[in-house]
Design goal:
heterodimer, A: alpha+beta, Alpha-Beta Plaits, ten-stranded antiparallel β-sheet, globular, B: Immunoglobulin-like, Rossmann fold, 3 domains, six-stranded parallel β-sheet, six-stranded antiparallel β-sheet, 13% helix
């Protein structure tokens, strides 16, 4: 199992080394990746903006402190003992721990540790930011909705008819997202998940 | 709603409470419009200029002095003052021209006008301007080993525009990027004081202190608006006003921060007064990805509400993945690996997606192709010196000369650089052009082509501030130059199947548009565009609308394996809703275990039918599986009448795995 996970890590974090070239036998890579993803322990389902996700209970993310910090150093900074690097997304480092956790934000010192999820259609890993994107049926209910679900510090975009809430530490994002979706005052709700990071082009 | 749309309002819980009211959805507590907007005009050269408030209230101003619009606005709403028209020999710049309306009269809008004074690139005192081939290509080497070959004139043709005196004055540009060194010696004069935003520090200084090996945003900014002075080079629009939003430097970027960077915020940051957004970024993906609904909504709001309702211009990099994308290497196929359609933000009709050309007047080696490309602009190659880096080929061909993080201890140019003598701050012939390492000769990418286009748009908007976002797109498409007339066509792996058609004229009437997946409508031509803008008839594009998605319904059409015949399906677009195409979206669902096998093309009903390949075979999707409501955009049909039968054709070019077309739909945008 460890060998297979290591293979996935290589596949995800060192793509150039394993470049799949047309005319070569790279198609096996897809099957390998799918197999490796199956080794990640999965938690609750989450409905995203346009995709379905499932919480990865043992995979977490931490942001690099600066451009000179390595992924391994960032993992060590949050005490990820025995953790394995999975992949990076921009300055976000995704790693796997032995111990499972809930889909909630946590702090280690000054550092935020993010939960992660997998896009069940594409297999892409995503980082849960702790933000919930909500379209209330009536924007006037925005405060009451926040209060009902233990959410804080919102930013509202009236022209988009959307409010961004932040889940408090310890709140399970999958649970609160489901609760929001079931709230009769809410038209739609989903957790913000970073699947792709914008990079200079 | 219409005026306030596009504006984000920061509300902490307390504010939410205050705003909550309890009214039944009608916004019954909205404040009354009671406050006026005004300011001072100076430097007028005669009669004939019109100021506009929020795209609706016009005010003629014929002399220096104070002005005030008669239209009143409510506190908390958004105001935006623009110059609707001005005399042909005059340019006017607006300061304090927009933002959230206070609970008082606005009296500090400044309109500073001056007579246009032309100049030429040859006469500039900016010491690096002569090496900026992208402005005036004379075959110079831009401090690389070799110069452009046979490429005299393959540039953005801005010299005649400078000769007319246009410089982008009064046009506010946002560089949505990694940062902006606001104190840079060649940028500071054009930076909007307090207008930028650093999302890491929540301050108005986005100078990049995180990256020490180059700040992408600062280099992008220089290509747009390096000032005309006696240092460095010059931007395409050397008097455009710069704002920087450093979303690419945020460690865990939030969607709300991105929305705030593209026009949804009127304070901290204020992006609501931006004319054109430079988006030299994208996502790297080998997997079909869907557009974020909030982003799509904000882009729509931006073209609907910003710039006084005339719409902001969103200019976006097409990508640098022609040969490789992610883990897939397509070198040798002759086909683009990354398709411009892979980034879902590129599939929105509100964008101007840009490809890159090099100093030889052909596609830059890396430039991503695809039917979502609108135009191309100089992006350069790599600008290195073999003696420094060991590079050869495109590695030592000209890149772009632009601004860099100041000083020789950081930046693309620094003492420790291993790319070029210029970037090391020395020069082998004793002529030291970059002693303080404040500039680089190694900027490239569609990241560079994008600001070139943004700069040209600034010139267009200065020449005719009344143009809408669609007018500007139309002008760019109509005036772009066809370059590399025989390049790009590729057969791919299937006999009898042209995987990449190269240049093709569509069936727009009365004048067809030439389109190429490598170049869009061609190389941006600032001179032709500004001249067209000056005499442009407003309103000629009518009302923007779309057909909505017209679906094939559920299908189960097997895609023949390794067959040029492929499978086809048709959809009829009725006459009426859209009579002239501005963009076409195709939504496709296919089951197939290896999407790299597939080529997808669309054939329009106009004339003999225009063929547009929206996804080529052997691309970077490679071993991704299945398309589920994936959107592709094509600009190839611009100007055609959409009424009639459209055909989708899917081919499977590589033997082995097979798949099925299960659904497709078409949405036509236009007027």
């Amino acid at each position: 199992m460890n060998i297979r996970i290591a293979a996935l890590c290589l596949l995800l974090i060192a793509p150039a080394a394993l470049a799949q070239k047309y005319g070569e036998s790279g198609k096996t890579g897809a099957a390998e990746r799918t197999a490796m993803l199956k080794t990640f322990e999965r938690g609750k389902q989450m409905k995203g903006s346009r995709e379905q996700y499932q919480h990865l209970t043992q995979v977490f993310a931490v942001a690099l402190e600066n451009s000179s910090e390595t992924a391994e150093q960032a993992i060590a900074r949050v005490g990820g003992r025995g953790a394995q690097l999975v992949e990076t997304k921009g300055r976000l480092v995704l790693y796997r721990e032995q111990t499972a956790g809930l889909a909630q934000m946590k702090r280690v010192g000054e550092t935020i540790v993010y939960p992660t999820a997998v896009n069940t259609r594409t297999g892409i890993l995503g980082v849960l930011t702790g933000v919930l994107v909500v379209k209330p049926k009536n924007m006037a209910d925005a405060v009451a909705i926040a209060s009902s679900h233990g959410l804080e510090s919102a930013k509202a975009y009236p022209s988009l008819h959307t409010v961004f809430y932040r889940a408090k530490a310890g709140v399970d994002i999958a649970d609160v997202s489901a609760a929001l979706q079931a709230d009769p005052r809410v038209e739609s709700a989903y957790p913000e998940i970073i699947e792709h990071v914008r990079v200079p082009k | 709603m219409r005026i306030r749309s596009g504006v984000a309002v920061l509300i902490a819980a307390a504010c939410l409470s205050a705003c909550g009211g309890g009214g039944g959805g009608g916004g019954g507590g909205a404040p009354a419009p009671t406050f006026a907007v005004g300011g001072t005009v100076s430097g007028v050269t005669g009669a004939g200029r019109v100021l506009q408030l929020n795209g609706g209230a016009n005010l003629s101003v014929n002399a220096d002095g104070s002005f005030k619009f008669t239209t009143l606005l409510a506190a908390g709403s958004v105001f935006g003052v623009t110059v609707l028209s001005q005399p042909a020999n005059e340019t006017c710049a607006v300061t304090n021209g927009g933002g959230a309306m206070p609970a008082a009269e606005v009296t500090n809008v400044g309109v500073s006008c001056s007579a246009l004074a032309g100049f030429s690139i040859a006469g500039l005192t900016d010491p690096l301007a002569s090496q900026q081939w992208h402005l005036k290509n004379t075959g110079q080497n831009a401090f690389a080993d070799v110069g452009g070959i046979g490429a005299m004139g393959f540039d953005v043709d801005v010299d005649p525009v400078f000769g007319m005196g246009y410089t982008g004055a009064g046009v506010t540009v946002a560089v949505v990027d990694s940062g902006l060194e606001i104190a840079h010696e060649d940028l500071a004069a054009n930076v909007v004081p307090g207008g930028s935003w650093n999302f890491n520090t929540n301050t108005t200084d986005p100078t990049n202190t995180v990256d020490t090996t180059g700040d992408h945003g600062t280099s992008v900014s220089g290509l747009i608006a390096m000032a005309r002075n006696s240092v460095g080079g010059i931007g395409v629009a050397p008097r455009a006003r710069l704002k920087g939003f450093n979303i690419l430097s945020v460690t865990a970027p939030l969607e709300s921060q991105f929305l705030d960077s593209i026009g949804a915020s009127s304070s901290n940051p204020n992006s609501s007064d931006v004319f054109t957004f430079n988006q030299s970024f994208g996502i790297d993906t080998n997997t079909p990805t869907l557009v974020d609904p909030q982003e799509e909504a904000q882009y729509l709001a931006g073209v609907t509400s910003l710039r006084g309702g005339k719409g902001a211009l969103y200019v976006k990099a097409g990508g640098n993945g022609f040969d490789t994308v992610g883990s897939v290497d397509c070198t040798g196929t002759g086909l683009t690996c990354e398709n411009a359609n892979f980034d879902p933000a590129n599939t929105l009709p509100y964008q101007i997606v840009v490809g890159a050309m090099n100093a030889n007047g052909i596609k830059a080696s890396y430039s991503t192709a695809g039917s979502a490309i609108w135009v191309s602009a100089p992006g350069g190659e790599f600008g290195e010196n073999h003696s420094v880096s060991g590079a050869a080929g495109v590695g030592v061909q000209p890149a772009m000369v632009t601004t860099d993080q100041s000083g020789c201890t950081k930046g693309f140019s620094r003492t420790a650089a291993t790319t070029s003598s210029f970037n090391k701050g020395v020069a082998p012939n004793g002529d030291v052009f970059n002693p303080s390492c404040n500039y680089t000769n190694g900027m490239n990418g569609t990241s560079s082509a994008t600001p070139m286009t943004v700069g040209v748009i600034a010139l267009i908007l200065e020449a005719n501030p009344a143009l809408t976002w669609r007018d500007v797109k139309h002008i760019l498409a109509s005036t772009a130059r066809k370059i590399d007339p025989t390049g790009g066509a590729a057969n791919g792996p299937l006999a009898g199947y042209i995987a990449e058609p190269g240049w093709a004229a569509n069936h727009a009437s009365p004048t067809p548009f030439n389109f190429h997946n490598w170049y869009g409508f061609g190389l941006v031509d600032a001179s032709a565009a500004v001249n067209m803008a000056k005499t442009y008839t407003l309103g000629q594009l009518g009302t923007f609308t779309n057909t909505g998605f017209i679906s094939s319904g559920t299908l189960s059409l097997a895609i023949p394996d390794a067959s040029a015949t492929g499978v086809t399906s048709t959809i009829s677009v009725p006459a009426g809703t859209v009579q002239v195409i501005e963009a076409v979206q195709i939504r496709v669902s296919i089951t197939h275990p290896f999407l790299g096998d597939l080529g997808i093309e669309v054939i329009s009903p106009a004339g003999a039918g225009t063929r547009s390949v929206v996804k080529n075979t052997e691309d970077g999707y490679f071993n991704a599986a299945n398309l589920s409501n994936q959107i592709f955009l094509s600009n190839a049909f611009y100007g055609e009448n959409p009424a009639g039968t459209w055909t989708l054709k899917v081919v499977d070019a590589l033997a082995g795995e097979t798949g099925t077309l299960t659904n497709w739909a078409i949405r036509v945008y236009g007027h």
